Input
Amino acid sequence: MTEAALTVTPLTHSIGAEVSGVDLAAGPDPAVVKEIVDLFHQHQVLFFRDQELDDVSHRDFAKNFGPLQHFAFLPPVSEDVPEVHAIDIDGAKPKTANADIWHSDATFLAAPPLGSMLRSVILPDTGGDTLWASMYAAYDALSSRVQRLIEGMTAIHDSSNSTSHAKKTANADYDPVAHPVVRTHPVTGRKALFVNKTFTTRLVDVTDRENEILLPMLTDHVRSPDFQVRFRWTPGSVVLWDNRCTQHYAVADYSGRRRMHRVVIDGDVPA
Ligand code: SIN
Output
């Protein structure tokens, strides 16, 4: 496969591109991998269709983006591939994963994940789409006055704010952490709004009253469709997203089974 074989179709002005002309399971050559990594930084979320990954090739392709986590909050699909875990939901039951709240993954960690690679394994007949939002676009859309107000501000992120994570982290050492409200992406240098409804509990060094008004304003800002892309999963779909500058939302509107396999890439301390 040569670099020229890739076809890239941006899905919105601010976030997301569909990439075709590559067989991820085959282990693309280094030039193609480099192009995909560059596209990842440019578009923040990459969508691939009709792929034939198994857990091993899924893990192996994700390694191109950095060391992988043994994600502590969901069990691995097998001992042989401990980096891959399943998000398996019976849509007939009440959904308790909290993925239908806008979030970046595990921002309660001192070094939240760089990104994730998710593939569809079992899909409901209808529904179960996922949306991503560009937190670069969200930051850019704030007035310069509000941008100045939040520059240098930090916020507390706490796993116990999420009912699904609180149970899993209750007996572990996950003290709340402070992260910058405006994060500078270590590769692109772009600024992203880095607060989310699931884990961010408190702006630091503001009064309670200011926090009550300002934090929801910042966490709800992600809701604008102007920053979003919505993906309809099909068999063989694979999505790679940058957790440092995006949030996502899994729509909980289905009644069948939905099983996804995911690999999480290690991140660094936000700055
Ligand atoms: C997640 O929140 O990481 C899962 C997204 C999805 O299941 O679509």
